[in-house]
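Repro:
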Amino acid sequence: QIRPPGASSFSFQDFLEKMKRPSSFELVRSVKTFILEQSSRRVLSVAEYERVIQEFLETTIEQLATHEQWAEASEEELDNAAEGLEKYLMNKMYKSCFQPVSSDDMQIDQALGDRLRMFSFVKPEHLEIPASLCQGDSFEQAKNELCKMDAYKAPRDKMVCVLNCCKLINSMLQNSNKETGADDFFPLLVFITLMARPPNLNSNIKFIRRFRNPIKLQGEAGYYFTNLEGAVEFIQTMGLKELKIDAHIFEEELNKGLESISPMLGDLDPLVEGGKKALEAQQPSTIQQSVPTQSLIDFSSGDGRAPVNPPLNMPNQAVPNQSVPQPKPHPVPLQNIVRRADSGSEHQELLRALNEPPVAKLVSCNIEDLGMADIPVLLADYKRLAGLVDKMRTFFEHQGFDYNG
């Protein structure tokens, strides 16, 4: 298996062994105290998680250089310690930092997964790459490497999967009997991503970008990682003009893809039916116009804070005396009511769902503003809202409220 330069020199076990020694007691306590403090804090925004963790890693890595365990260490040994610290910390904090509650990562993952399935009809010739490249053990291994990202917790381990995939692509291009070159790398990476359909692809990419040592995202590693980010963005906006395919075949295959990912579309009538009629009225050339990245899915690192909810009408309350003026009650966010009720896992799931922001474009758009490329996002948001209603129903029932009242 291909490994990136320096991958074989990293020993997490060596780092753990040094951390077990008595002289590392204060260092271990510092790390564990940080983890405990973060677990007991309020939910942080994505930007806050990134800042707090990167600052702690940077400060602690500087301390390692003067620690007696590494006082006479070589540059490679210090790098090994820094990698070990990052892996140890992120393994412990993975649950709160991967798809954090304050982000829309899960929603984007679902929409991206639907889009990957929708475009599963794409063939090598549609991206103008030789079909001979898209078969054999190396091709399958490159797909597997992308999928393996989701099995690891440390940013470095996920990054190694990206590098392995890209180095396999380079090897495939070098060993090809066809005339291929650097220009074939990106379309082949796009096609491998489409065929692999890696789980939680958006979240894994963002996790690496947020919590990997910035120095390690430079040079060759940064080049390959940026190419993967570009491939995902290309897929998010891909339409007829990006593919070498007949317009009628494209429309037919895209409709099949929509049917395969959206068995619930019939339940969205008249919204989706109206959208279908609007699409049918368009010419094939306009149907495939790419949707701007920012209007389809925002890949920036916003804090994703949920808007304040309207006040909840509490049932079974005493009716006030109408002859006596009553003070107007202050709106109570539903999140606060859930927090006061219980800290159980089901209520935590409801809090997580309440904090997921809606897709900005869908809130203010009209039916004629929607295109085929928006269908996966629309479906994902519909599923999110349907799931939220179910969680709210369960919550009200557990609290003894008359939900139908």
